[in-house]
Structures are given as C-alpha cells and as structure tokens.
Amino acid sequence: MATWRQAVELAMSEEEIERLTALSLSRTESASRVSRAAMLLAYRENPSFFAVGRKLDVHHQTVQRCIERAVAKFFEALYEVERVARQTPPDGETCAAYTLRLRQQHSLPVLAAFRTWLDDQAPKVLPESLTGKAIAYARNQWDYLTRYTSDGLAPIDNNVLERDIRPFCTGRKSWLFS
After folding, report:
1. Whether 131 contacts 64, CB under 8 Å
2. What proportion of the chain, given as a percentage, has pLDDT over 90?
3. Which long-range contacts (CB under 8 A, 24 or more apart) does 67-76 make?
4. What is the mean pLDDT of residues 65-81?
5. Phi first, then psi: what are they for 67, rounded to 5°?
6. Fewer CB within 10 Å, N side or C side of the chain?
7. Contact 39, 49 (CB under 8 A)
8. 95: which residues sit within 8 A by CB, 6+ positions away?
9. DSSP assignment of 107-141, as one string?
10. In this predicted structure, what is the pLDDT of residue 116?
11. pLDDT at 119 > cutoff 50
12. What is the pTM of this model?
C-alpha cells in the first residue's frame, strides 16, 4: 500500500505537498484545502488515497487532543493556586496579600512556561486554523491574561460576572417579543 506522501506526490508539486503536510498539524483544516483536481489525480493513481485520508483525520484528532491536554494542564495548575489561595491565610496576612504572594510565587512561573509553550507551538500550526487562531489570540492578549497576578483582589476569570448578567442578556430577547 502506498503511503500518503507517495499518493500525493503523483499529483502535486513539492510546494503543495509541504503545504498539505503542514495541514496535518491541525485537525480543523480539511481536505477541501487541497484542490479537487489534485485529489482526483491522486485517487486515479492510488485508489487507497482516501482511506489514507481517513487515517490522517484520526491523526489530526490525536494531535488536537494532545494540544488540548497540554493547555488543560497549564490551566489546572493556575486554578490549583487559586484554590489554595481561597483557604484561610496564615496569621498576620490579609487574604489579598496571601493571594498575591501565592500568585507571584506559583502562578507567574506557570504562566511563563505557558508563554514559552505558546511561542514554541505557534510556528508549528497554521495561523488560519482554529488552533493557530487560539494560540495567536492568547499571545496577543498576554497582558490581559496575566494582569490578575498583579492584584490579590482580582479574580482569575470573570465567570461570576458572566453568570450574573446572563438573565438580563437572555431576558432582553424574550422581553422583546412578550
């Protein structure tokens, strides 16, 4: 059975092959990016081309899951620091000062490692893929992402506010038609 690269080489230029190889790093990029004529030529030369494509989709999903797990580990560590910060502070220290100290000691190194990971992953994914857009967004919004580490009173996320305004946002549409 011919490999995926051998099947594609029959129908595509070297530049197109490299571009398609880069697509394998992102699950969100589909075979529609490859011209229909190139796919038909590859199929004519090797009928198992599309079976190999299905295997590539499994590979895309595996890569995506690995990226999701890596990001989840960083955020689990950040939320673990917040969980510890909600406990009773040591004697003589306010809650805000205790939270700030924990964030400075534990969250900043995790965030630095996350930034390094983002910088390492950015050239490996296509910028127009969903993963590439998410990485670019995190890198572009870095100052806002790390701002909570400079204040012990600032929450790590705005979930409480989002939850509190949800009834008004959903109600606004309902009230329009009542």
Report:
1. yes
2. 37
3. 67/121, 67/131, 70/117, 74/110, 74/113, 74/114, 74/117
4. 88
5. -65, -45
6. C
7. yes
8. 85, 89, 152
9. IHHHHHHHHHHHHHHGGGS-TTSHHHHHHHHHHHT
10. 93
11. yes
12. 0.63
Q: Which residues contact 144 (CB under 8 A, 6 or more apart)?
A: none
Which amino acid makes up residue 177?
A: F
| Residue the block writes with tokens 């790590």 | 156
Mean pLDDT of 43-57: 49
Token reading at 9: 């080489």
d(CA 174, CA 5): 54
Q: What is the Cα–Cα distance from 40 to 168, expressed in whole angstroms?
A: 53
Separation CA 124–CA 103 (nearest Å): 30
CA Rg value for the chain: 24
Closest C-alpha to 49, from 57, 58, 40: 40
Contacts of 28 (CB under 8 A, 6+ apart): 60, 64, 129, 130, 131
Token pair 């059975």 is at which residue? 1
Instruction: Tell me the two tokens of residue 160.
Output: 């409480």
